[in-house]
Amino acid sequence: MFIAITATEDPETVCMYMEGSLNAASQQAFESKFQEATQRAQMILIDFSAIEQIDSVGLGALIRCFHNGLAAQVRLVLMHLQFQPRSVIELTKIEQVFEVLSPKYLSGRL
What we know:
By secondary structure, the chain is of the alpha/beta class. It is built from four helices and five strands; from the N terminus they run E-E-H-E-H-E-H-E-H. Helix 1 links the parallel strand 2 and strand 3. It is globular. It starts with a strand and ends with a helix.
């Protein structure tokens, strides 16, 4: 799994770009990178455009990051959710917890 953190035009916003799967093998790296990003951001965008799969461990990591972000007063936003990750989030009914940007909203924005 590849995880990159890139700064956006706004110095207080960080975008995390990931490739592969968010699962037991990658959750520790994901949480570490998220924690690193909370040290310098007020908002973290997580780009799911290249995340093909998320499992229960990955979902747990995402929830922990959400709570850690709240504690650090960092806004967490998910974007470009692919079919499988979106399905898992909707199936578990936690889509109400996360802020998710739709493709329509993103067009021309990022």
